[in-house]
Amino acid sequence: MFKRIDDPKPETVFLEIEGKRVSAAAGDSVAAAMLLAGFGHTRTTPVSGETRAPFCMMGICFECLVEIDGAPNQQACQTLVREGMKVRLQRGPRAVQS
Questions:
Q1: What is the reported pTM?
Q2: Distances (CA, A) of 5 to 2, 24, 43, 71, 77
């Protein structure tokens, strides 16, 4: 289970993830907030539709791509939460099979 191990009383901010109001600690990454809120993945692949989730949490793997405030392809692990932010899972359109 993903849980916080430091600062027992961090400042709280509220954001929206997939239409759900979620609280997070100021200074958390979007990826951490999503994991703490129970979201099992951040995106689907464009070819197969497979789900992907944060993996490295340091900006190397690009598995945590999400849409933030209407901008696609944002790395959730490299973006800090802020009050009122709107986050959506990034859904890759499936490739058309010929």
A1: 0.86
A2: 10, 14, 26, 31, 18
